[in-house]
Recover the amino acids of this structure.
């Protein structure tokens, strides 16, 4: 007879295992599963005899059977612990992802006498991973984790694909990562990473990478530091491929630059008579002074001093004509935006010189009130000339045919120590209902207007971190003003 106490103890252990809310099973050394607790049997909705031995494979998803069986046989042969993820058919017929673990139990001589197994439902985790992976794929975004002590310790599958690398690879070392960065951006990224680690900072930076195929892509990297007990533990973040967006932005900028150039050419066409007059003055002076110099030289005896003075004036007028032509060519030229420190008053004066004759021809009284000691601003002089030119032409058209007609151009400092420029006219004024629409693309109050001039002006001023707006002038006319931040407070792009 067996020991009643031992049978009672075994029964207690089995009852305990059956009551545990977990899926537990055991296997003989040959791989035959000989026990499933009640949790397992209820989960699959089958009696023990239907899944014992190797019959348990009938509950595994057909696509996963081959893999889990191969792995189980491998562990039986090597004695290594078993771990595998496979889908199991639940009692209601739904297949759910589970992780299966088995560990060998050995006797004193090291022989395996039994395997104990545990399975856990990971369907929710798998779905979360799937949704995350799909979201990354659709957004062309990958996830990474950076360990300050040893470089990257995690890269998501999508991140490998973004970089054109094998997803089966390990997360790259810092050196391998930097080798992927475009050579022109590599030094900057090296310094940035060093600063992030030294100061426990995150990042938001767009840089270029070069894929193994040689293709260049723009990648936006956003990272946040994970601080534990005051020490930087990790920097985790995302990387998104923004190449298409970057290319679209560059195409938009190119289109806008071309539209700006066309607008400048249009305005210069409207000022043809004024420009011709401006050029005619120095050219006429050149002819006159050169003729006078010849006459002084033809005298007997020649008056060399007066001839030299005439030739000096000839040179000065030739330089003046050359400067006028230079300004016109700059306004018409098809060239990329170029920012530098700009003297706003000088820029205003250059535009006034081009328009002065046209203003006089329309019998408009011009007043300039340019404040001295204005701070320099950081910007594109040609683009700012275009804004001022547009506002002056609009003011001239608004006052055309009116008496008296007055145009005032002013400059000064604003409340933030930046620069404010105002173009004030005594024209027909603004309709308050339309003031907000003046800067909308394709909105115009002119019979033959395109409706792009003021829209372009506002986009230029906005790109310079400034503001452009319009208000009625008292008692008559309109005021167009724009502000620009001073060079010392402007946040330049690196």
């Amino acid at each position: 007879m067996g020991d009643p106490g031992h049978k009672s103890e075994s029964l207690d252990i089995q009852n305990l295992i059956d009551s545990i809310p977990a899926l537990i099973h055991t296997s003989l050394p040959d791989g035959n599963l000989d026990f499933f607790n009640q949790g397992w049997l209820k989960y699959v909705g089958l009696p023990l005899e239907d899944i014992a031995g190797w019959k348990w494979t009938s509950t595994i998803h057909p696509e996963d059977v081959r893999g889990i069986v191969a792995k189980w046989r491998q562990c039986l042969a090597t004695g290594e612990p078993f771990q595998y993820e496979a889908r199991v058919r639940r009692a209601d017929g739904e297949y759910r992802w589970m992780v299966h673990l088995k560990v060998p139990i050995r006797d004193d001589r090291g022989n395996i006498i039994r395997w104990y197994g545990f399975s856990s439902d990971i369907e929710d985790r798998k779905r979360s991973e799937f949704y995350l992976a799909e979201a990354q794929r659709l957004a062309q975004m990958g996830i990474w984790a950076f360990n300050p002590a040893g470089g990257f310790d995690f890269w998501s599958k999508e991140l490998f694909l973004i970089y054109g690398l094998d997803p089966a690879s390990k997360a790259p070392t810092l050196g391998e990562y930097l080798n992927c960065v475009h050579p022109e951006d590599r030094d900057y990224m090296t310094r940035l990473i060093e600063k992030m680690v030294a100061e426990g900072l995150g990042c938001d930076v767009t840089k270029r990478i070069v894929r193994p195929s040689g293709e260049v892509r723009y990648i936006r990297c956003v990272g946040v530091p994970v601080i534990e007990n005051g020490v930087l533990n990790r920097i985790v973040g995302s990387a998104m491929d923004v190449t298409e967006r970057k290319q679209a932005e560059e195409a938009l900028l190119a289109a806008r630059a071309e539209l700006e150039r066309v607008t400048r050419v249009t305005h210069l066409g409207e000022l043809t008579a004024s420009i011709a007059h401006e050029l005619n003055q120095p050219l006429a002076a050149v002819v006159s002074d050169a003729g006078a110099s010849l006459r002084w030289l033809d005298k007997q005896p020649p008056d060399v001093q007066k001839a030299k003075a005439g030739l000096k004036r000839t040179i000065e007028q030739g330089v003046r004509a050359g400067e006028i032509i230079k300004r016109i060519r700059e306004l018409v030229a098809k060239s990329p935006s170029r920012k530098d420190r700009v003297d706003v008053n000088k820029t205003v004066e250059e535009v006034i010189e081009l328009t002065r004759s046209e203003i006089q021809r329309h019998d408009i009284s011009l007043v300039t009130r340019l404040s001295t000691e204005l701070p320099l601003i950081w910007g594109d002089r040609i683009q700012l000339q275009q804004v001022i030119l547009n506002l002056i032409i609009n003011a001239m058209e608004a006052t055309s045919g009116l008496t008296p007609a007055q145009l005032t151009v002013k400059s000064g400092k604003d409340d933030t120590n930046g620069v404010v420029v105002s173009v004030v006219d005594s024209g027909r004024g603004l309709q308050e209902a339309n003031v907000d629409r003046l800067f909308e693309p394709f909105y115009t109050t002119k019979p033959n207007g395109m409706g792009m001039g003021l829209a372009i002006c506002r986009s230029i001023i906005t790109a310079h971190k400034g503001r452009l707006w319009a208000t009625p002038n008292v008692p008559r006319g309109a005021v167009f003003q724009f502000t620009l931040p001073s060079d010392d407070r402007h946040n330049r792009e690196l």
